[in-house]
Amino acid sequence: MTNLRLDLHIHTRASRDCLSDYADVVATARARGLDRIAITDHNEIEGAFRARDLDPELVIVGEEVKTAEGVDVTGLFVSEKIPKGTPAIETAQAIREQGGLIYVPHPFASGKGLGEEVLAAIEPWIDIVEVFNARVHRPLLNERARRWAEERGLPGGAGSDAHTLREIGRGVIEVPSYESKSGFLEALRTGRVAGRYSSYLVHVASTWARFVPRRR
After folding, report:
1. How far is CA 93 from CA 62, 190, 194, 195, 214, in A?
2. pLDDT exceeds cutoff 90 at 118
């Protein structure tokens, strides 16, 4: 059976802390042997649509929403933008109403992870937990996410959280070939994480990107 390599957490220039052009993201992902990528820009869906137009087979449309609680909840396979500041439970409901899947990125990362309280509140809605994020430099936090998912029987995902082209493909999950959204979830259950951590310097790049004027 053919395995697919997925990076489920990538940003484009539609995120205010990223300068990566849509075409460059797609080309880089293909060059690194990725079969699917999720474009999950911060509070924006336009970049995912533009990337998907370039390579529909490769790109999963997503959005990483900063909720009212100040934490991130991601929707995969979504079709409409969810406004920044929407409460976490309402964000999860909005993702489901679009037929999307609720993906929890870096659940225990300081300053942006959900933490136990918000996780407990949206737990009934969660479809996938990110068990490896290449920008979470404390491996124990990724391990904590893996254990949390396993204890609840939830499939794990992995992503580079790439804000630069260099990072794309550093967080990958290898899964059996699948044909549908339900097949995607089942494939993740037997997936194998293959990742390596990015340099701490990537945070300098994404901070610098906030101050660079750009044309979307």
Report:
1. 15, 27, 31, 31, 33
2. no
Which two structure tokens, joined as six digits, stand for 146?
């893996």
At 195 the three-state DSSP class reads: strand
What is the chain's length?
Answer: 216
Q: 86 pLDDT exceeds 70? A: yes
User: Which residues neighbour 56 within 8 Å (Cβ) at sequence distance 6 or greater?
Assistant: none
The structure's pTM equals 0.92
Task: Give the helix/strand (H/E) hosting 66.
Answer: strand 59-66
Residue with tokens 């920008």: 135
Number of H helices, E strands in the chain: 7, 9
DSSP H or E segment with residue 92: helix 88-97
Alpha helices in 114-201 (DSSP H): 115-122, 139-151, 181-189
Domains of the chain: 3-209 (3.20.20.140)
Separation CA 101–CA 75 (nearest Å): 6
Q: What pLDDT sits at residue 104?
A: 96
Give the phi and the psi of residue 74 in degrees, each rounded to 5: -110, 140
What is the rounded average pLDDT for all residues in the chain?
Answer: 91
